[in-house]
Amino acid sequence: MASIDDLIEMLLRREGGFVDHPDDRGGATNFGITEATARAAGYAGAMRDLPRSMAADIYRKRYWHETGFDRVNALAPRIAAELFDTGVNMGPAVAAGFLQRALNALNRRERDWPDIPQSRTIDTATLAALKAIIQTRGKAGETVLLRALEALQGTRYIELAEARPANENFVYGWLAGRIGDFHA
């Protein structure tokens, strides 16, 4: 399994450098980091000049450690990689919410583990449910959970394009460059 450094490196390569697409509501980005995120991390320069190392530090801190995805990684590295990727693109709360929804849908009406609150954070209940699916279903359970997360991610991309036609400019790239990349 890939380390967080490997995941960040793959992400930086895929996101590329400076982009300022007129249809991107996030505005100008560099290495996939929005200006708002860079400013929140203390960067004051032009987005075109954002250092690659700072982008990597932001990903490591804000999208790995602060989210709790590092704790998921200790249990299920493929799931953590998927959450990291989804969290970067859609926000960590969305990624955590996808995990909670999938775990609740897979618990066979609470026979295998209790439903968990939709806190949209990686909390102790979420980690307990993740442990339970791995204990109950083994590696196959992790694979099915991964498929559920990818399905939710893909569905969200289509819904974003349906709700805002300008997002159609991005859907192909979102799907081609995200689904399955981090845990093959």
Kindly describe this structure.
The chain has a domain of 112 residues. By secondary structure, it is mainly alpha-helical. α5 crosses α6. The N and C termini lie close together (9 Å). The mean pLDDT is 93. It is globular and about 55 Å long. The protein has eight helices and three strands. A hairpin with a 2-residue loop joins β2 and β3. The protein is 64% helix and 3% strand. It has a three-stranded antiparallel sheet with strand order 1-2-3.
Question: Gist?
Answer:
The protein has 184 residues and is mainly α. It is built from 8 helices and 3 strands. The protein has a 3-stranded antiparallel beta sheet.
Sketch the topology as an H/E string, one letter per element: HEEEHHHHHHH
Kindly state the number of beta strands: 3
Task: Give the assembly state of these chains.
Answer: single chain
Q: For the report, how would you describe the main beta sheet?
A: 3 strands, antiparallel
Please count the helical segments: 8
How much strand?
under 5%
State the low-pLDDT regions, or none. none
How large, in whole angstroms, is the Cα Rg?
A: 17 Å
The backbone outline, from C-alpha atoms, is globular
Tell me the strand order in the biggest sheet: 1-2-3
What's the pLDDT, averaged over the residues?
93
First and last CA, distance:
9 Å
Secondary structure class reads mainly alpha
Percent range of helical residues = 55-70%
